[in-house]
């Protein structure tokens, strides 16, 4: 066999094994789809994972009636934990209500996905709730605070949750002023009012000398 023939064979072998970024992305997308499952689960057996929504509006009679008579029409989203149990990611209100009032089959549809990072979980839950039944402003503040504590910037919080940047900034301001936050939680102030109140509180505290200004010695 000639040297030229050997080189041609090596080139052909290398061409066959080269994988482009597009190929990699396509394979990852295929694997993600294949990893998902759709099951019907007992809602009472699903573990209610951490959720930024705290107000489930359990007194919504029409919603409870619909679940009892027709079941859960849109699949909830869960993941399997290390013990093989299903933990809820999205669909808390549907799952809790179904467990309380029952469904025609006793089961609810569930989409099983890989366990997400905390930042992805919080962001997805906020997007789902904000654009559906409207989260309370105190819940928005709590969600923004959780993302900030995970090191997510204000700009990224706005991008992840589709909340406008002024609202994100207002929520972050309220997280730094306990009195403002308490009044927001109790309904005395709107988020915008609480943010203004929080800013005045910070300015007042600095003037009193309790908190050093940026750039000055403590």
TrEMBL record:
InterPro entries: Chromosome_partition/occlusion, ParB/Sulfiredoxin_sf, ParB_N. This is ParB-like N-terminal domain-containing protein. Residues 39-130 form the ParB-like N-terminal domain. It comes from Nocardioides daeguensis. SUPFAM superfamilies: KorB DNA-binding domain-like, ParB/Sulfiredoxin. SMART domains: ParB (SM00470). It comes from the Bacteria.
